[in-house]
Each structure stands twice: as structure tokens, then as C-alpha cells.
Design brief:
With 460 residues, the protein is of the alpha+beta class. The protein is built from 13 helices and nine strands. It has a five-stranded mixed β-sheet with strand order 3-4-5-9-8. Strands 1-2 form a two-stranded antiparallel sheet. A two-stranded antiparallel sheet has the order 6-7. A hairpin with a 2-residue loop joins strand 4 and strand 5. It is elongated. The relative contact order is 0.07.
């Protein structure tokens, strides 16, 4: 290979490696782009953003100088288009940059060892250029292979359990990878020095660094991975505590509803028992022509009967109280409440379980309707049995945008909404699993659909 050919190879190599790194980052981002709409356009955008940042930072600077801030800024500016939160986009950017630098340090050390073990000496310029080109190519491909493995492990870990990212949590997660980036930049400046026109390598001057540098790089990467695992575990414990608290409150709420239903029917039976006495009183007032007292007496009876009236009859005392309670709430907030709900007649469903499902579905729908500033507010509830299956569906409008996490549930950046949306829907999913069923959530034309499918159990 001639000198001119080596120069061309070197330029093509840098461009090719940049393209491969752009592909690696695009593949790293792909699993987190959960919205399938315009997926390939989003992937193309990620690919182009990487190349644009590489071009802006200069082909010789890459990650060592200004690539990271430019690259991160471009990603953050495009996070809404990609359908990702700013915090998560920032985390992915830092994790990628850290992995690339640390994998480069590890590969550089292994490459230096291989170069010493498989040294090739020649005085022919063409052979020197050719040997240098082969070594450069092998180094680039080895670096890319190690980077791909490190990114794959991080990707699998992040997808295993979702992390609730606030800025405080983000700072905690980015601490170690940021330190790894600074360490990598510092070592990169020390790898090659020129003294008296003689190039000196760090590993030649300090052989101990040949083990220390890759070991520290591996420790930085392991620390990053463990930090993510610990944060996921902490999130799981927090969510379990919150779920326990919310479940306890919901159980107490359902128990109160059951007591209300029992009290209602007890009082209704008492009133039915006293009806004969009321009829005798009405008859007596009528015979004595005390019509004014008779009118007052009937008015009091009508009010008493109205207090025991349930506008919606579902076929079960527990669901009667829950549905009618939400109906009263809708009337107070000018929400149109349409109900076609019939309790399953098979007897293979626990009223307590259905009560928890209804309570959570209707609470979410009510909250969404209350946030609507303009447009019609409505909630549609249907419940019907088809063979061995029972289907519950709630539809309601909403404003804004709803994003779904990797678990299929809506995600939010607001702390005060997490209990209701996250845990409430998680409780519904837990109840459906008792009946080998499923919870399906989807949106269409600013309308939210929540569908619960249950299957009969014979061991109730």
C-alpha cells in the first residue's frame, strides 16, 4: 500500500467507523422507541443526529472535545419528536458516550498487548503502510464489537424494569458514567505524547497502566450497571409500598361500599315492613279529611323512598353502589355518564374483584374528564358476558398526549398522578390475572379505551 493509498484508507476508515457508531447508537435507541408510529423515521432521525454531531465536532475530535455536549443537546431538542422524556434521553446519551469511551480504553490496552505479541517488522514502506492499515481496521472493529456487547447489556437491563426518572434520580444514575467519561478523556490525552520529536506511548513509559486502565474502565462500566440495578430495585420496593398503601385504601373503600349496600337493603327491608303501617296512616288521614297533613305525610314518605332509590341497577349490591356513586359524581361535574353494565349471572366472579376493577377504571375516567377545559365530557361503561368470558370497557375523552411505557401502562412525569395512573391500573391488571384475563389500553382520536377481559374460574 502506498502512502497516498494509506491516506485515503485513513479517511475512509474514519467515515466508516462514524457510520457504524451511528448505527450502533440507533440500535441502542430502538427498543426504547415504544411508539410504533413513524418508527423508521425516528430511527433515521437518531442516525442523522449522530452524524450531524460528529460533523460539527470535527472528525478528529469525536468524543474527546465537543462531541458529547453537541450530541446530547441535539438529542434533547429532539426528545419530544422521538416520544421520549428529556430525562431518559439524557440518560441514554450519557450511557452511550461512557460505554464508547470505556470500551475504547479496554480495546486500546488489548490492542497494545496483541501488537507486542504479534509484532511485525519490515523496512519496506508499502508493507509498513499495509500493516498499519490492517491493525487500524482490526482495532476499529474490535472496539465496535466490545461497544456493541456493552450496549446490549445496558439495553437489556434498562428494558427489564422501568425507572421512574426525576432530575435527582438522573443525577444519581449519571454520576458514575460521567466520571467514566472524564477518566477516559484524561487517559486519551496521556496515551500518546511527543518528546524531542519522538512519539511516546503511555504503556511504554508506565507498563503498570496496561492493567490499571482497562481495569478501571471495567469498574466504571460495572459501577454504572450496578447503579441502574440498585435504582430499579429501589423503585420496585417503593412501588410495592405504594401499591400496598393504595390497595389497602381501596379494600377499605370497597368494604365501606359493601357496608353501605348492606345498610341500604336492611333499611329497605325495614321500610317494606313498615309500609303497611304507612298505608293505614294514609287511610286514616284520608277518612278524617285531613288533607293538608296527608300531603305533608306523603311528601315525607316520597323523600324517604327517594333516598333509597338507586338509579342504576347492575344486578349486584357492590357494583350497584360503586356505579351509582360515580354517577352522582358525574352529575355534580356535568359529565355525561352512559351505562350498559350487567353483573355476570354465572356466579364465577367475585364481586369484590369486580368492585376493585370498576373503582379504578371509573376513577381514571373521572380524573381525565375533570381536566378537560373544552369539549364534551362523557364516560361510557359497558359490561357484558359472552360465554365463559366477561368484558368490561370504559371510554372517555382526554386532553393532551398519553405515552405508554414498556409495561403497556400510561406513564407520567407528575408525581401526584403516579399513584392513580400507575398503581390503579396495575391493580386492575393484577385482578385480571386472577381470571386469566388481560387489560388492554389504547387511544384513538383523543379518546381513551380501557378494556378488561375476564375468564370464568371454576374454583371460586
Amino acid at each position: 500500500m502506498s502512502e497516498h493509498g494509506f491516506i485515503i484508507f485513513h479517511r475512509v476508515f474514519h467515515i466508516g467507523i462514524a457510520l457504524l457508531h451511528a448505527v450502533s447508537f440507533t440500535l441502542f435507541m430502538k427498543p426504547f422507541l415504544t411508539e410504533k408510529k413513524y418508527l423508521y423515521r425516528k430511527l433515521l432521525l437518531v442516525f442523522l443526529l449522530y452524524l450531524f454531531a460528529w460533523l460539527l465536532s470535527g472528525r478528529t475530535t469525536t468524543l474527546q472535545n465537543v462531541f458529547i455536549p453537541i450530541f446530547t443537546a441535539l438529542l434533547l431538542a429532539s426528545s419530544k419528536t422521538l416520544g421520549l422524556k428529556n430525562t431518559f434521553t439524557f440518560l441514554l446519551s450519557i450511557l452511550y458516550c461512557s460505554s464508547r469511551i470505556l470500551s475504547g480504553l479496554i480495546t486500546e490496552s488489548l490492542y497494545y498487548i496483541a501488537e507486542k505479541l504479534l509484532s511485525f517488522h519490515s523496512e519496506i514502506p508499502e508493507m509498513i503502510y499495509q500493516n498499519s492499515a490492517v491493525e487500524t481496521l482490526l482495532f476499529g472493529l474490535s472496539h465496535l464489537a466490545l461497544l456493541s456487547v456493552m450496549l446490549y447489556v445496558l439495553c437489556c437491563r434498562l428494558r427489564k424494569k422501568a425507572i421512574t426518572l426525576y432530575w435527582q434520580t438522573l443525577c444519581y444514575l449519571c454520576l458514575i458514567p460521567s466520571a467514566g467519561i472524564l477518566f477516559g478523556r484524561m487517559i486519551s490525552r496521556l496515551l500518546f505524547e511527543i518528546s524531542n520529536d519522538i512519539p511516546l506511548k503511555l504503556y511504554e513509559r508506565h507498563p503498570v497502566f496496561l492493567i490499571t486502565v482497562p481495569l478501571l474502565a471495567l469498574l466504571f462500566y460495572t459501577g454504572t450497571l450496578l447503579t441502574i440495578i440498585f435504582q430499579q430495585g429501589s423503585d420496585t420496593l417503593r412501588k410495592e409500598r405504594e401499591e400496598y398503601f393504595v390497595s389497602l385504601k381501596q379494600i377499605q373503600s370497597i368494604q365501606e361500599r359493601i357496608q353501605e349496600a348492606e345498610l341500604f337493603y336492611t333499611q329497605f327491608r325495614q321500610m317494606k315492613h313498615e309500609l303497611r303501617g304507612h298505608l293505614n296512616n294514609i287511610k286514616g288521614l284520608s277518612q278524617s279529611r285531613q288533607y293538608k297533613d296527608l300531603e305533608q305525610y306523603i311528601t315525607r314518605m316520597d323523600k324517604t323512598i327517594h333516598d333509597f332509590e338507586l338509579a342504576i341497577q347492575t344486578g349486584n349490591a357492590v357494583t350497584d353502589v360503586i356505579v351509582n356513586d360515580k354517577r352522582q359524581h358525574c352529575l355534580r361535574h356535568n359529565i355525561d355518564f352512559q351505562v350498559d353494565f350487567h353483573y355476570p349471572v354465572s356466579g364465577q366472579y367475585d364481586a369484590f374483584d369486580l368492585g376493585i376493577i370498576l373503582q379504578n377504571l371509573l376513577l381514571n375516567a373521572l380524573e381525565a374528564c375533570e381536566k378537560i377545559n373544552s369539549g364534551k365530557k362523557y364516560i361510557t361503561l359497558t359490561g357484558r358476558q359472552k360465554g365463559n368470558f366477561y368484558l368490561i370497557e370504559v371510554r372517555n375523552p382526554f386532553e393532551g398526549e398519553i405515552y405508554f411505557g414498556s409495561d403497556g401502562l400510561p406513564v407520567t412525569t407528575k408525581k401526584n398522578e403516579i399513584l392513580l395512573h400507575g398503581i390503579g391500573l396495575s391493580n386492575i391488571r393484577r385482578e385480571t390475572e386472577k381470571y386469566m384475563g388481560e387489560l388492554d389500553l389504547k387511544t384513538k382520536n383523543n379518546e381513551f379505551y380501557a378494556t378488561v377481559l375476564l375468564q370464568e374460574r371454576s374454583n371460586l
